[in-house]
Amino acid sequence: MDHAKGFTEVGHASWYGKKFHGHKTSNGEIYDMYAMSAAHKNLPIPTYVKVTRIDNGKQVIVRVNDRGPFHQGRVIDLSYAAAHKLDMLKSGTSKVKLEAIVVPPPWEQEPLFEAITPVSTSLKVEAQTAETLPIAASPAMSPTNTEPDLYVQVTATQDSTKAARLVDQLALLFETDARTINEQQIHKVQLGPFKTEDDANKLIEILKQGEFSSAFKVYAQ
Q: What are the tens digits of pLDDT across the range 105-133?
């Protein structure tokens, strides 16, 4: 297509993950399953697209940088991260509506990217409000509390740069805290702490559908 202005489409979305992670996309970029990207057959590359899952109303903004899907009846292939946000990892496919976001040049309209609202805006507002409130004592904050914290260890690597990047990506994707534990030049990437075993188990189930099939629970003070 020459342009994406006014483009809308309804059909089934699918997603692609670790099999293509680290490989080149159609425009020469490296596919990152944890980025908000997508593949479309004929939209201009790049194009920003709002994807709305029809049965639950969830939405994501993705950047088309690849060609596909090539299965009949599918209109877009979403990254692992985008599929997670739409809650379609288990189902594999979902009916969606696509709406292209065409950003005018700055001399025509501003501010740029007005249509793209950061997911974390409301969380930031809540955090700022919380800072003004008195902090009540809780068992987790008590010096007499000896219960260990529950984390999910995602992976371990000798590459400190890779570990730091993963911590940032996974914390944003799963909207949780994350940390690295460094032991004898091994950098352990961990998410948490989690309040319940059920929360940790749900995350492990999602991780194992992606690249991190060896994720497991750990307890630490």
A: 443 434 333 333 333 433 334 444 444 44
In CATH, 145-220 is 3.40.50.1820: no
Tokens of 117: 């609202």
Per the listing, tokens 């944890």 go with 34
In CATH, which superfamily holds the domain spanning 8-101? RlpA-like domain (2.40.40.10)
Q: Which residue has the tokens 């955090």?
A: 127
Tokens found for residue 146 = 């000896």
CATH 3.30.70.1070 location in the chain: 145-220
Radius of gyration from C-alpha coordinates of the chain: 20
Dist CA 144 CA 162 (whole Å): 37
| Tens of pLDDT, residues 71-104 | 888 999 999 999 999 999 999 999 999 999 875 5
Of the two residues 29 and 172, the one the predictor is more confident about is 29
What is the end-to-end Cα distance of the chain in Å, rounded?
56
